[in-house]
Write a structure and sequence with these properties.
Strand content: 5-15%
CATH architecture of the domain at 12-238 and 585-595: Alpha Horseshoe
Distance between the termini: 31 Å
CATH topology of the domain at 12-238 and 585-595: Serine Threonine Protein Phosphatase 5, Tetratricopeptide repeat
Oligomer: single chain
Shape: globular
CATH class of the domain at 12-238 and 585-595: Mainly Alpha
Strand order of the largest sheet: 1-3
């Protein structure tokens, strides 16, 4: 495998210069510059360099990435967003309208190339100098493994955006050779997986069990195994496994090899067989309300989190995404197609005639994850005006004028009739309270889905292990077992039938966790998702039901909550987003980078 010593970066010389400024280990002027020679004579400062490598981890969903309030979900088919109503040129509009170019890349992708390579540079620096630090041999060994894991994670981020990228294992110098080509996708996969294998051998299974609770949240052996499973899943997927737009090994494997699915399944199974992780269950094992699924994102130490972004007490998500009546910025309006993906509590899809779904009473007896993920008409949330959990109303003409459905793009209330509640604390409002929130970079629920997908694709028909992985998730979700104990899964499914079930399950279980955007691309289903109009739910009070003004009277609250007091009508919300199959699956490398290297090829469809 060919590994390059130097790496090209957008505006590379400027980036190297910036990296050398005395901004401090954590961009804090009170700390020491990571390039200061004295760093490596001080154990604390050396540790701060590694902490700086960790500081670059941040999901696209986090609020600092897009207009301070929006999320990557609005770039997929999970939700609509309200910026179009209040901003003539929001970042997501470039995706919706197909106006993005290599010279004009919107947030959060405009800095993806440079951000990841800056963090790779930090990791390389740490690996090259940590042996000089006054730390024990055991600590150095572990910290090197952490740096290797982090470097592999940043390369994984680059690979899912661009496919093959230049690989570097040495510290860049300002007088280096920047005119170098990209490594092939296969070389990148091999490099990342080999680095994860090396790191796993030197990392602990559990910091708390090892008596090092102060290090909780750092990379572990399980994090290495989980990331390896994800990288191999991407490598086996249609986009990269012989499905590139052009037959260049930089863009993916030149030909399809079904055995890559088996490798991905084996990697996920290694995490499962380790016995170190499990799905977080509800109190006393009660999953009837999907309590474990809800608490997953609010519980600092739990058996499902493999690697997470840890935060102190805050209400950032609530302030950004809750409805206006709850003090939120109501930025995320759920696509009804996503809402409709939730099955009934018996596990059957709402399109199944035997599911029991009633389109004129659509929010009863649904998968309990639905009630932890969606704010719909009548769903209760804490009211900041009286500290009571009361219904949120999204029907047309609701009396507060805050949360009800409005004509698309006229005003800034809900454009779909739905708001997001995933990952948020139900005890907070957008203006009061605080709670710790934990975003999963890697969690066991994903591993089960990765295994189910890879195993199903490696077989002619799904076996019991594929069913069991999904059953574990559905059982924790609170779906009823049914007489056959299959939790709504049809017996004897074909590979194609199971494939669709797995994709639907991923869409629900991993929603708003930065997966759907990438799943659409690696599965090459963009034209059938972005090409489908967003859906909204129009809810209207029936004649004879209490007038909207009556909602202000507490005596009517219970009566107005009766779903049959409304009529429900779904409608198309927007024109489809522009999605060009041979262009949109991979994102463009910034043109500024292409301009400074005549050997660096652009991704298909983004060439000038």
């Amino acid at each position: 495998m060919k590994i390059y010593k130097y790496l090209i970066l957008p505006a590379f010389i400027a980036i190297v210069a910036i990296s050398c400024e005395k901004d401090g280990v954590l961009t804090n002027s009170t700390q020491t510059d990571i390039f200061d020679e004295q760093v490596w004579t001080d154990s604390l400062k050396t540790t701060q360099v590694l902490t700086a490598v960790y500081s670059g981890l941040g999901p696209e969903t986090m609020l600092v990435r897009i207009n301070t309030s929006n999320s990557l979900s609005e770039y997929s088919d999970e939700s609509d967003e309200r910026w179009v109503a209040s901003n003539s040129n929001p970042p997501v509009a470039a995706f919706q309208k197909g106006t993005m170019s290599a010279s004009s890349i919107p947030q959060p992708f405009n800095t993806t190339w440079s951000d990841n390579y800056v963090n790779i540079r930090r990791a390389n620096l740490f690996l090259s100098r940590v042996d000089e630090a006054p730390l024990s041999a055991g600590t150095k060994k572990r910290m090197k493994a952490e740096a290797r894991f982090l470097r592999a994670y940043y390369y994984h981020m680059l690979m899912k955006h661009y496919a093959g990228v230049p690989i570097i294992e040495e510290v860049l110098t300002i007088d280096g050779d920047f005119n170098l080509p990209r490594n092939t996708y296969e070389e990148c996969v091999n490099f990342v997986t080999s680095e994860l294998d090396l790191a796993a051998a030197d990392l602990p299974v559990d910091y708390i069990a090892a008596g090092k609770g102060q290090d909780y949240g750092r990379a572990t052996r399980g994090a290495c195994l989980a990331l390896k499973a994800r990288v191999l899943l991407f490598a086996a997927s249609p986009l990269f496994n012989g499905g590139a737009a052009k037959p260049n090994p930089v863009f993916g494997y030149p030909s399809n090899d079904p055995s890559r699915w088996a490798k991905a399944a084996d990697a996920a199974k290694a995490v499962m067989d380790s016995g170190n992780y499990s799905l977080l269950q509800g109190t006393n094992g009660n999953n009837s309300t999907a309590e474990g699924y809800y608490l997953l994102y609010l519980t600092r130490i739990n058996p499902e989190m493999i690697l997470a972004r840890l935060t102190g007490s805050n209400r950032s998500l609530e302030s950004s995404h809750l409805p206006k009546s709850r003090g939120g910025g109501f930025h995320t309006h759920l696509n009804a197609h996503y809402v409709n993906a939730f099955p009934m509590s018996n596990g059957k899809a709402i399109t199944d005639p035997l599911s029991g779904y009633n389109p004129q009473n659509p929010y009863i007896n649904r998968d309990p994850r639905f009630y932890r993920s969606v704010i719909y008409n009548g769903a209760k949330w804490l009211n900041p005006s009286n500290s009571l959990k009361q219904p949120v109303y999204t029907f047309v003409g609701e009396p507060t004028g805050m949360d009800g459905l409005i004509d698309p793009w006229v005003g800034i209330n809900s454009g779909t009739g739905y708001y997001n509640r995933k990952c948020m604390s139900e005890d907070l409002t957008g203006t009061s309270g605080g709670a710790q929130h934990f975003f999963p970079f890697l969690r066991y629920g994903e591993i089960l889905l990765n295994y189910a997908e890879a195993k199903n694709e490696s077989l002619s028909a799904p076996d019991a292990s594929v069913y069991n992985a999904l059953i574990d998730l559905r059982k924790r979700a609170g779906i009823t077992a049914g007489a056959d104990g299959k939790y709504g899964l049809k017996t004897g499914m074909t590979q194609d039938e199971m494939r669709q079930i797995i994709r639907d399950e991923r869409r629900i279980e991993l929603s708003f966790e930065d997966h759907r955007f990438w799943d659409i691309r690696r599965w090459k289903i963009g034209t059938s998702t972005y090409g489908k109009k967003l859906r909204a739910m129009k809810i209207v009070l029936k004649p004879g039901a209490p007038s909207p003004a009556a909602l202000t009277n507490p005596a009517y609250v219970n009566y107005i909550d009766i779903p049959t007091n409304y009529t429900y009508t779904e409608f198309d919300l927007l024109k489809p987003s522009v999605f060009i199959e041979n262009t949109s699956n991979l994102l463009p490398i910034p043109q500024s980078q292409i301009n400074i290297s005549n050997k660096l090829i652009q991704n298909p469809g983004w060439e000038n």
